[in-house]
Design a protein that fits this description.
2 copies of one chain form a homodimer. In chain A, 29% of the residues lie in helices and 22% in strands. Chain A has 8 helices and 12 strands. The first copy, chain A, has a 5-stranded mixed beta sheet, sandwiched between helices. In chain A, strands 1-4-2-3 form a 4-stranded parallel beta sheet, with helices on both faces. Chain A has a 3-stranded mixed beta sheet with strand order 5-12-11. The N and C termini of chain A lie far apart (47 Å). In chain A, 52% of the residues are buried. Chains A and B meet through helix 1, helix 4, helix 5, strand 5 and strand 6 of A and helix 1, helix 4, helix 5, strand 5 and strand 6 of B.
Chain lengths: 257, 257
């Protein structure tokens, strides 16, 4: 399993590149496979975004036949991507699959790329949460989000919005406003590392007003109570979270004013 | 600012390598600088691990003089590393530093490397928490840990233990046992990607009994209630967290038996 990072080839590790170069078969979501050049002797098996476990089982079946298979994810394969689906398929599959040598090659996940572009917003403790309620009840999402807000983590939201899930991001930001000040920095980091990259540094209030402008390619990051801006002339402000915490997280709830 | 990843050069991104190649001055903690080859025309400024803001100010001062300075971190510069310290120094420093062009190059942070080696333990929602109480009160650490445990996040503990902080990891694991079953998988992932790498897959009970065997180079990962093992013959089990969540996090507290 290989992670391509968020977009630019400049963020693909040499280890991931070597695995791609050695592969006979590449399996993954079409747009990720499109980022790997065509090459003779290497077959691409593109699939839809919604069939992770079938795709994983297909990869294991080919590998059991002796093919050199790479399952391709964007970002890091272990973070809201294909790695967990492969192990689910492995556990549910025939015993002979257990002898397949499986290697996971880490990649730059979207929150690290977004943070790097903005400054250092992950300078303190943080969490990563998928807003999708396809695989977990919405009550689990809100329970985790509430816990992370109350404990003053920086919060990275993956899968913030899609055509089938249009209201979840707005609901999550409304919940954030019950715990964080309206001026709290929020990032909408879209397609970081790709030609259509857009990094927007907003306040929480602005993020609530424009939640519908995020899309599936957007990583949303909600600052902690201590997350700060450094203004610059002619460029977006830097966003960073100081390393030090002086007050208890329980004392940081400020609410929307 | 550049992240070297956890150890092996195979995990240094091409973008990070290009920044190192273009540098006139490298600034960082000695053991990280040791991982970058000596080269004529490139000066290394090694420093102790405890003087981040002084080191950051030194980097900004050299950059303001027109030097091509790279601040070197292990892992990712934005995750419990140098990036936040540089922005702290920038904010506190003279106004002319604000025009220095600053770029952060992301890297493979330790939890991604540890997860990749183990399987897919970060398959669900997760958080990253520094156990060091040098920069925040211990009550903040325990409040955040308790929140993450109650909400059933997978928990990655950075800076778990040092000679000056010998008891914090044991206390954190004891706290985990109030929320997670004794059989919950826990990883002690030491020096992943380096020749002295050791990956240990433990139960929470075993982790508590052997907390003193972790060290500063260890990333500790506490599974969620759903984190599972897949046994293999002749190798450590795979560890993964299924993508689906079926029960409320509030119902997962099982306690130590």
């Amino acid at each position: 399993m290989v992670g391509l990072g968020p977009g630019t080839p400049e963020w693909i590790t040499p280890a991931a590149q070597a695995a791609l170069d050695a592969a006979s078969d590449l399996i993954g979501y079409g747009p990720y496979l499109d980022r790997v050049p065509e090459r003779s002797g290497r077959t691409k098996h593109a699939s839809d975004n919604r069939v992770e476990v079938e795709r994983a089982a297909h990869a294991l079946k080919l590998a059991a036949e002796g093919r050199k298979v790479v399952v391709v994810s964007g970002g890091d394969p272990g973070v809201f991507a294909m790695a967990a689906a492969v192990f689910e398929a492995l556990e549910a599959g025939p015993a002979e699959w257990l002898v397949i040598p499986i290697t996971v090659e880490p990649g730059i996940t979207a929150m690290l790329a977004a943070a790097a572009r903005a400054g250092a917003p992950l300078g303190g403790d943080f969490c990563a949460l998928s807003l999708s309620d396809n695989l977990k009840p919405w009550e689990v999402v809100t329970a985790r989000l509430t816990a992370a807000l109350a404990a003053d983590f920086v919060i990275c939201l993956y899968n913030p919005i899609s055509k089938a899930r249009p209201w979840q991001l707005g609901a999550a930001l409304d919940l954030a406003a019950e715990h964080r000040a309206a001026e709290t920095p929020v990032l909408f980091a879209r397609a970081v590392g790709r030609p259509d990259e857009i990094l927007r540094v907003l306040t929480l209030a602005e993020a609530i007003a424009t939640a519908g402008t995020a899309d599936m390619a957007t990583l949303v990051m909600i600052g902690a109570s201590s997350t700060r801006l450094i203004a610059r002339e002619g460029a977006a402000p830097y966003v960073y979270t100081p390393r030090s915490v002086t007050k208890s997280p329980c004392a940081t709830s400020q609410g929307r004013t």
